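Extended Data, panel c. Modelled sequence:
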Amino acid sequence: MNSKDIDFLRSVIDQRMRTTSTNPQIPNYRNYRGSDQKIPSLGTGIGNAVLKETKQYTGSKMIGISQMAKSNAIPIFNSDHIEEVARMRR
């Protein structure tokens, strides 16, 4: 760096030091948007969703439900599948 650069940097630093407050004020956010004010929600009590029908298996192909690991329930469709699940347990 040459002397012109050093002088320029010193002038910038001096200017910033003069314009920067030594005692900055912290904004008071307690009364921001009127925190004392209670704004009621728009609760009309009327919903806009339709209750879905519960799904239930009505077929005859599935003969049962097996549990492989922890809470992994799988459907059983024939007796061969029962034996396969029993072998896969360990």
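The first strand starts at residue 64 and ends at 67. This feature is highlighted in the accompanying rendering.
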